[in-house]
Structure formats: C-alpha cells, structure tokens
Amino acid sequence: MQLTIAEINQLSQPEFVTRLGFVFEQTPEIMAAAWEQRPFCDRPHLHQVCATIVRTMTDAEQIKLISAHPDLGSRLVMAEASVKEQAGAGLDRLTPTEYAAFQQANQQYQQQFGFPFIIAVRQQTKVGILAAFQGRLKNDRATEQRTAIAQILEIARFRLEDTIS
C-alpha cells in the first residue's frame, strides 16, 4: 500500500526507517538521516534529500553502500525489492549459458573495481545489462564509483515511486 507524503511526514523515526529503510539496500541509516530533514514537500524532495546524504558520504561509506547490493543474476538470497527488480529484467530466468555469462561478468567487474556492478535494472533487458557490463569495464574506478552511486540513486527513485503516492 502506498503512503502519501503527508503520512510519511507524520511517521516517527523508527516507523519511517521501518517503512522506507529498504530503499537503499541494507543501508537504513540513510533514511534515518533523511528523517531529520522533514517535512518533505513531495516525493522528489525526499529523494533529493537522500541523494545529498549519499553524495556527501565518505568514500568508505559509499563503497559500503555499493557493496551492499547483490550481484546481478545471482541465485543467492537477496532483499525482496532486489528480487522483484531482477525478476522484472528476467534475471531470475537465466539459461545456463546466460547465468555463466552473468557470473563471469560479475567476477570480472568485482576483480577490476572491488565492488559489485550496479545498474537500475528496471526497464532493462538481460542483453542490455550484459552490454552495460562490457562498456563500463572500460572505465576507471572513480568513474565506476560515481556511476554506481548514480545508479543506486535511480534505484532509490524507483523504490520511492513504488512506495509513496
């Protein structure tokens, strides 16, 4: 059930974090910090507040946030939101060949950059995601960290859209 921004603004900090803590994968402290800046005018304002928090995190905090995300196409246990998002892109129905390609791409990316590949999979295809892997492997680590943070913020925007009317 979606909440209105007025309802969001009325939540206590523990309720706010319980309801919205999933927006940033395994990092509810972002929403705990965002709560401090209530009231929010609308959903984009809340997203902007969160984006500012994420962008001003230390390098180590950003890497921890990036590293909280699961590998794409993984068959490991992951957060419910990630399961739904990956299923939407067909990553839960990979053929053995596709699964091997995703595992190889994840491993190569992780070895090169030291954190998992992040892409907002909504409105993506398996083919498009694999192509993005190949293109982004050409980047340097700083560029990839910025790209991963931008993708995390896009994922958060989608999750907020699903949660707040």
List the keywords.
165 residues, mainly alpha, UraD-like, 9 helices
Structure description:
This protein has 165 residues and is mostly helical. The chain has nine helices and no strands. The protein has a single domain, classed as UraD-like (Orthogonal Bundle), CATH 1.10.3330. The relative contact order is 0.16. The model has no long low-confidence stretch (mean pLDDT 89).
Provide the β-strand percentage band: under 5%
CATH first level: Mainly Alpha
Give the CATH topology. UraD-like
| The CATH fourth-level homologous superfamily | Oxo-4-hydroxy-4-carboxy-5-ureidoimidazoline decarboxylase
Distance between the termini: 9 Å
State the CATH architecture.
Orthogonal Bundle
Largest sheet: none
Q: Return Rg in Å.
A: 16 Å
Structural category is: mainly alpha
Mean pLDDT: 89
Number of domains: 1
Tell me, briefly, the overall form.
globular
Low-confidence stretches: none
What count of helical segments does DSSP give? 9
Strand-and-helix sequence, N→C?
Answer: HHHHHHHHH
Report the strand count: 0
Q: What share of the residues lie within helices? A: 55-70%
